Task: inverse folding
């Protein structure tokens, strides 16, 4: 094989490899996907989810993943799942997402432990999930 054919073959292989690396298992491209910490209304509408729990489970299951203590100081804290907030009001644990119908949800946002603690106080070792509905004006940024 000539040098130009070899170079061309290598270039095509690299492009195919990069394309495969940027694609999501469900066929969507991660390069143009929305932020990974937010689930937007239009994404939820594309699923068969009936409640916020199903939407999170289908679209961002990592939101629900229990997180253990990240420092020795947090070993005594018992919560390893995020606290749920509905329109900036504390709503409960992850199971309470089943009580929030998808109709009216504007976005579901995962907030890290640090972000949640800045916003709501220190009782968020595993972060928080904020569900914003059409009943709230503006969004938490």
Result:
């Amino acid at each position: 094989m000539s040098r130009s054919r070899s170079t061309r073959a290598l270039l095509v292989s690299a492009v195919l490899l990069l394309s495969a690396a940027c694609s999501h298992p469900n066929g969507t491209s991660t390069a143009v996907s929305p932020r990974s910490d937010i689930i937007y209304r239009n994404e939820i509408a594309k699923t068969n989810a009936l409640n916020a729990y199903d939407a999170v489970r289908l679209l961002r299951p990592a939101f629900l993943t229990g997180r253990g203590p990240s420092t020795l100081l947090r070993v005594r804290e018992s919560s390893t799942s995020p606290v749920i907030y509905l329109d900036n009001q504390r709503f409960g644990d992850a199971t309470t997402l089943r009580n929030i119908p998808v109709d009216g949800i504007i976005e579901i946002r995962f907030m890290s432990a640090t972000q949640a603690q800045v916003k709501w106080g220190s009782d968020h070792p595993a972060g928080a999930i904020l569900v914003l509905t059409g009943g709230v004006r503006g969004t938490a940024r």
